[in-house]
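Re: [ENG-882] Designed sequences occasionally contain unexpected residues at chain ends

Forwarding the minimal case from QA. Structure tokens:
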């Protein structure tokens, strides 16, 4: 029995480490920042919202509350479980997928939100977005710019804290 518990703990911790290594460590997005992003997005009722690296599910659940068809992708098992519990408690129809965000199909996404480290965004995600997102898709990057992309808007508190970069896919 102790061996099984050790294996479970190891798998949980390994999944957290994998998420941190591949895209970003888990840093919970503050609710005020999620609401700022949703305000920048405008009316998202009926739109497809995807959060990459959804952590505890906060942004995905809020997008679902705003009327979007909202899906979060999370690779860390403990965070995936936490997001499922949060959605259940919130009586939300937000959906969560346990898996690698780089395997998510982004071709029909209307609004994309993520927090990723600059290197992971530049080396992995930027090319995926260029290949899969269609014109008009709104992209929101929390805290870090997408290298070589010019934001359409930047929302920050006190001038430069907690920036949210808004991009609109042009081509």
């Amino acid at each position: 029995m102790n061996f099984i518990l050790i294996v479970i703990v190891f798998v949980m911790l390994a999944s957290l480490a994998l998420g941190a290594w591949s895209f970003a460590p888990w840093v919970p997005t503050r609710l005020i920042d999620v609401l700022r992003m949703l305000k920048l997005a405008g009316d998202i009722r009926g739109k497809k919202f995807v959060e990459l690296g959804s952590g505890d599910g906060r942004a995905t659940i809020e997008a679902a509350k705003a009327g979007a068809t909202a899906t979060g992708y999370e690779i860390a098992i403990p965070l995936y479980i936490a997001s499922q519990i949060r959605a259940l408690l919130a009586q939300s129809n937000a959906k969560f997928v346990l898996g690698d965000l780089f395997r998510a199909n982004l071709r029909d996404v209307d609004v994309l939100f993520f927090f990723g480290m600059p290197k992971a965004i530049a080396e992995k995600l930027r090319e995926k977005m260029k290949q899969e997102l269609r014109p008009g898709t709104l992209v929101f990057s929390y805290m870090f710019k997408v290298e070589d992309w010019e934001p359409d808007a930047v929302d920050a508190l006190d001038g430069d804290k907690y920036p949210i970069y808004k991009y609109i896919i042009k081509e």
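QA comment: On inspection the terminal residues look reasonable. The chain has one domain: 2-168. Proposing we downgrade this to a documentation issue.
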